[in-house]
Fold this sequence. Notes:
Elements: H1 6-19, E1 25-36, E2 46-62, E3 67-72, E4 75-82, H2 96-107, E5 115-121, H3 131-146, E6 150-151, E7 156-157, H4 173-191, H5 198-205, E8 210-215, E9 220-225, E10 229-235, H6 246-260, H7 271-276, H8 283-307, H9 311-329, H10 334-344, E11 349-355, E12 362-368, H11 372-387, E13 394-396
Parallel strand pairs: 3-5
Antiparallel strand pairs: 1-2, 2-5, 2-8, 3-4, 6-7, 8-9, 10-12, 10-13, 11-12
Helix pairs in contact: 2-3, 2-4, 3-4, 3-5, 4-5, 6-8, 8-9, 10-11
Amino acid sequence: xxxxxxxxxxxxxxxxxxxxxxxxxxxxxxxxxxxxxxxxxxxxxxxxxxxxxxxxxxxxxxxxxxxxxxxxxxxxxxxxxxxxxxxxxxxxxxxxxxxxxxxxxxxxxxxxxxxxxxxxxxxxxxxxxxxxxxxxxxxxxxxxxxxxxxxxxxxxxxxxxxxxxxxxxxxxxxxxxxxxxxxxxxxxxxxxxxxxxxxxxxxxxxxxxxxxxxxxxxxxxxxxxxxxxxxxxxxxxxxxxxxxxxxxxxxxxxxxxxxxxxxxxxxxxxxxxxxxxxxxxxxxxxxxxxxxxxxxxxxxxxxxxxxxxxxxxxxxxxxxxxxxxxxxxxxxxxxxxxxxxxxxxxxxxxxxxxxxxxxxxxxxxxxxxxxxxxxxxxxxxxxxxxxxxxxxxxxxxxxxxxx
Length: 403
């Protein structure tokens, strides 16, 4: 990859400084913003998301001694391990996402040896933009660069061939889903976050200027143009950590509710059925199920509004989603609520809500392009007045996925 961006140059410089030579390969994978569909992915539901111009970069080179050495611009100490032994290191938890992917590749019969890798990111850590999934996808693509392989439903198959310039063909659409599922398994099994597939799919299937409509039951992706609106991220400054247990607890409540309602997942439950059987559920099970069932219905309605270019109505579904997350799912926090309320006060804001796992992190805001600067000044000023926290809102471009 040419030094086309400062971040790409930074990861190459980091690699050369540590390992003493220029890396032959650089890959990148974008983060994502969940536009609508909070916690619906692991309930076989519907989600709308975008890939954005915040990336994880990996510069890499093969080595012959069977070891992997990782360095990161975000953490001071390197991590080194054998390719035959993937164990979590309590002092380098960030490397678990890489190790988890390597373990899943090995499980699927992918043959690879050791390598050196430098990791650099422009995704704010803990902001709910899925730096973890981007790292997983970038890891899988880095190994593919070094030791070409192809994936099928059952595992590794005939690897792709390099062209005369030594380049591999891009991932076919069907194979992207196998990569997404592999990286999801890495986070689910190795890291211990029982997440859905939203983040990994979004990083691979993104399309510039388009929202992804993801069906998590049938693993299908469609794209709908989003034009004329700025996507602005406001980070609360409150870092979240999904490994802490809150995320897994929400999934437990949802799965318990589905089981008691006789459904495979909450995707199959209608609101009338849920309300008629409320007495069968514990209070938290009902609250979580109420959010999921209503959120899936909001995604369906929002897709119709977007296709009709009814952005005002589309934005109302974002506000409603945040209220449901706050009141029913209870994965908001005071800082997120302040950001959404301050955003609502600005005339240019079409919709706002928390994005990602919640419990901190960031909000996503859809704002008319011509009022974006005014909106960012307004929300930074008012948030500082109400919380004492200074933030720098960022406009995110919707970009193509890693594949």
